[in-house]
Amino acid sequence: MEKINKNILNQVITLRNPVSYKGNYGKILIIAGSTHFGGAAILCSSAAVASGAGLVTVATVPEKFTAINTRIPEAMTIDYQNKNDLLEAIQNNTVIAIGPGLGISSVAKGLVKVVLKEATKNQTVIIDASALTLIAEEKIPLTTNAKIIMTPHQGEWERLSTLKIHEQNELNNIDELHKLNPKAALVLKKHHSEIYYQGKVLQITAGNAGMATGGMGDTLTGIMAGFIGQFGFSIETISAALLIHSYIADKLNKKHYVILPSLLIEKLPKYMASFSYENGHYLS
Ligand SMILES: NC(=O)C1=CN([C@@H]2O[C@H](COP(=O)(O)OP(=O)(O)OC[C@H]3O[C@@H](n4cnc5c(N)ncnc54)[C@H](O)[C@@H]3O)[C@@H](O)[C@H]2O)[C@@H](O)CC1
Ligand SMILES: Nc1ncnc2c1ncn2[C@@H]1O[C@H](COP(=O)(O)OP(=O)(O)O)[C@@H](O)[C@H]1O
Ligand SMILES: [Mg+2]
């Protein structure tokens, strides 16, 4: 299993072209949150904004609009139960992240199905948390025209793959991913998370137990969306998003026993600047 080197951050995080605007840095739709899980939508969308996404729209329940608008004034909000607004947002965004805090209601199930059906080949769908649980438990076929990134923790991967945690080794994971969707990328979250994509298996060696706190995965999903929106879909971009999350957490862990996801999010622009200056180039 190949280790992901810190150089990937210099490689992927380029300087911004001076002649550019928000439209160059990705339009992200985050379908997240429900009555009891508003925080997941806030963390995921603030991570997308802080990692540089050009425009972020959060599709959620209207009761969470005020909280989201107050915490993240950069993001827009729509009601995911308004079919016209949702379909328009699916069409207008380049990256769609679905699942953090969504819950497993019949409304949530309908949202997962609509996204898989409507997303097109030029879009990326990031599937996390409740959306993964729904796909597993409701046996929703993982078929879509879009590129797919799944980000399960080991419990979610157990539901999806039917592999018990002790059976989740490299060969079994490759086999099960192939059965689910051979074109999808799998980010298996754990201590030293792994990426499976088109026969390649990569692993980070960063990350610490201070990250074992609610909302840390929702944060990764937002970073993943922000990175794919700006730097394009590739295994390198996926690797850089996964690594920067744990890299910042390791820096913070020197002085913080537990890493608050909102603190990690606050640090993203500063660390991204340092890697982009080391890179010194911008994408033309
Ligand atoms: N502030 C918020 O609004 C939060 C909302 N959350 C949302 O809550 C919903 C349920 O997600 P949860 O993940 O909490 O619950 P789940 O029930 O989906 O997963 C937890 C289960 O997986 C098992 N497991 C095995 N390996 C694991 C690993 N490496 N990491 C985590 N669990 C592992 C646990 O033992 C447990 O049985 C999701 O929609 C999620 O996004 C959580 O992210 C927590 C914070
Ligand atoms: N002990 C640990 N070592 C390294 N990384 C960890 C550890 N515990 C948690 N993490 C990381 O924190 C994140 C937790 O994700 P997840 O369980 O989905 O959180 P949530 O759903 O609460 O947001 C993952 O990226 C995981 O790799
Ligand atoms: Mg999670």
From TrEMBL:
Reactions catalysed, as given in the entry: (6S)-NADHX + ADP = AMP + phosphate + NADH + H(+); (6S)-NADPHX + ADP = AMP + phosphate + NADPH + H(+)
One Pfam family from the record: Carb_kinase
Binding-site residues for AMP, renumbered to this chain: 189-193, 217
Cited PROSITE patterns: YJEF_C_2, YJEF_C_3
InterPro entries tied to this protein: Carbohydrate_kinase_pred_CS (IPR017953), CARKD (IPR000631), Ribokinase-like (IPR029056)
Binding-site residues, (6S)-NADPHX: 40, 101, 153, 218
GO biological process: metabolite repair; nicotinamide nucleotide metabolic process
Gene3D superfamilies: 3.40.1190.20
Cofactors: Mg(2+)
Domain YjeF C-terminal, first and last residues per copy: 5-275
Residues spanning the membrane: none
Assigned EC number: 4.2.1.136
Assigned keywords, A-Z: ATP-binding, Lyase, NAD, NADP, Nucleotide-binding
Gene Ontology molecular-function annotations: ADP-dependent NAD(P)H-hydrate dehydratase activity; ATP binding; NAD(P)HX epimerase activity
Main enzyme class: lyase
SUBUNIT field: Homotetramer.
Similarity field: Belongs to the NnrD/CARKD family.
Function description: Catalyzes the dehydration of the S-form of NAD(P)HX at the expense of ADP, which is converted to AMP. Together with NAD(P)HX epimerase, which catalyzes the epimerization of the S- and R-forms, the enzyme allows the repair of both epimers of NAD(P)HX, a damaged form of NAD(P)H that is a result of enzymatic or heat-dependent hydration.
NCBIfam families: yjeF_cterm (TIGR00196)
Name of the protein described by the UniProt record: ADP-dependent (S)-NAD(P)H-hydrate dehydratase
Organism from which the protein derives: Companilactobacillus halodurans
